[in-house]
Amino acid sequence: MSQPKPNEDYPSCYVDTQSIITTTTNDIPGYRVTKNLGTIFGITVRSRNWGADIAGSLRSAIGGELRVFTTLMYTARNEAMDRMVGECMGRGGNAILGMRFDAVAEGTWCQVCAYGTACCVEEVAGGK
Known about the structure:
Elements: E1 21-22, E2 31-47, H1 50-62, H2 67-90, E3 95-106, E4 109-123
Parallel strand pairs: 1-3
Antiparallel strand pairs: 2-4, 3-4
């Protein structure tokens, strides 16, 4: 089941996983792990342009959501996850178990790492 594409005007957590099952859990109900392909990750470091940085700094003086930085974090997370999925595909996997994010934001840049365990899984007879 594919997810609908997000509205480009509002940040969202949309990544086309190319049919790779991604989950934060350590197993998938109805499936069994046939091969562990090891730890994989995707990393990105991003920053905004100086104009957006100034606008965000001014907005922070009066409070409220810093939309330019929210969008930056969504974009960075999506890119890191996309790279992680590519790593899984490159190893021949069809699932990522135990998927997590690690993020650091410092000043006007952020670094996001998406990581998990690449695996080959198969559906168990009578599963799902």
